[in-house]
Amino acid sequence: MNNILVRRMLDAIDRQYSEAMTLRTVSAQVGRQPAHLGRLFRQEVGVTFREYLTRVRLERATGLIREGVKIEAIALSVGYRSKKNFYQQFKRHYGTTPLPYRSQAVPAVSEPAGILRARLGPEPIRRESDVSLGALVSTVRISNRAWRLAVRAQRLMLKHFTRLRIGILLTNEVGRYVGANPAATSLTRYSLNELRELSPEDLFVDPRSMETRGVWQFLMLHPNPPDQSLNAIVRSKAGEGISVRLVTFRNFLWGHRELSAMLGEQVAAAV
Q: Which of the residues 24, 44, 165, 185 has the least number of beta carbons within 10 Å of its own beta carbon?
């Protein structure tokens, strides 16, 4: 994040998300006009100030829901004075209300930093800061307060999407497949167009315990380190059951221009 004003806004959200916050109240702290800050924020972060604040609040809420905290207390603790508004926002983002979410929620899988040390060739992926895929996974798994860092990490992943040797599948907000890299189509033997007709229920033997809406799914035949267990079975087009290590990440890039452009290119190539 290069813009110091936006960094200050993000820090304010991290500290004060449970309070009554608006772009106007934060602009008073930062000392700039709300309209100017709103434009800067969307340009740097990729979503509006309000949308980012909502995401931070709801991500905090999901952790408390998993811990069994009362829903009314959760709504208040993450900044919602209206229980009805909290329920509406939660359902809009997660497709269900908090109580059903609690019964369905599965704790996030904790993966060692080295699990995705995939190779593009003789050398791992690198950028200016010499980030490996292991570091990328650590960044994606970072706490909700560092959501913006997860966005950066997924942008890096997207940049190398077609070159990664780990199979990657992408679902939309209703859980349908909309993207797949060559490694994924090679593993499943389905073309992208065929995958777009499938749901996770069609592709996996038992998908009931996994989050399937708006996620990246990593499929690994040979986990790294090798003592990681294979935890899912993929049905290939030939009907073969293929055991894989499945790792799921929430998609923080949904609606971003770079992701839309990649999906458009994939659709065009598949026609």
A: 24
Length of the chain: 271
Global confidence as pTM? 0.48
Between strands 167-171 and 177-180, the pairing is: antiparallel
Phi-psi region of 167 (alpha: psi -120 to 50; beta: other; left: phi over 0): beta
242 neighbors 190 (Cβ within 8 angstroms): no
Which residues, 6 or more positions from 259, have their beta carbon under 8 angstroms from its beta carbon? 158, 251, 253
Which two three-digit tokens encode residue 37? Answer: 């800050």
Which CATH number among 3.30.450.20, 3.40.50.300, 3.55.50.30, 2.60.40.10 corresponds to the domain 133-270? Answer: 3.30.450.20
DSSP letter string over 58-77?
HHHHHHHHHTT--HHHHHHH
